[in-house]
TrEMBL record:
Protein name, as recorded: RNA polymerase-binding protein RbpA
GO molecular function: bacterial-type RNA polymerase core enzyme binding; zinc ion binding
Function: Binds to RNA polymerase (RNAP), stimulating transcription from principal, but not alternative sigma factor promoters.
Cofactor notes: Bind 1 Zn(2+) per subunit.
Positions contributing to Zn(2+) binding: 34, 38, 56, 59
Protein source organism: Enemella dayhoffiae
Amino acid sequence: MADRSLRGSGLGAKSFEDETSIEFAPRTEIGFDCPQGHHFTRTFAEEAELPTSWECPRCGQESIRSDGVPMEVKEEKPARTHWDMLRERRSIPELEDLLAERLDLLRGKE
């Protein structure tokens, strides 16, 4: 049984298929410029939504497209605090009742 193991080929994602009859999807190459002066390109499928920024592979800063497409401004949500999340679940009178109960427990009335 052990004699018939896969000899001569390693385990993993090796494919023994021939790529001659494969037609790749149409692609487009987009250039990006980093604030540090680095230029690099990335390849995307033509039908893909193209990003307006990309992280520079050399320094990690945010790079913009070199073809002049303006960066899209993302709408920032305000940070939700503990109080905001609590107010979503309880009303002010409910919170006042809970506070009174907890204060009574702490004061040793129960």
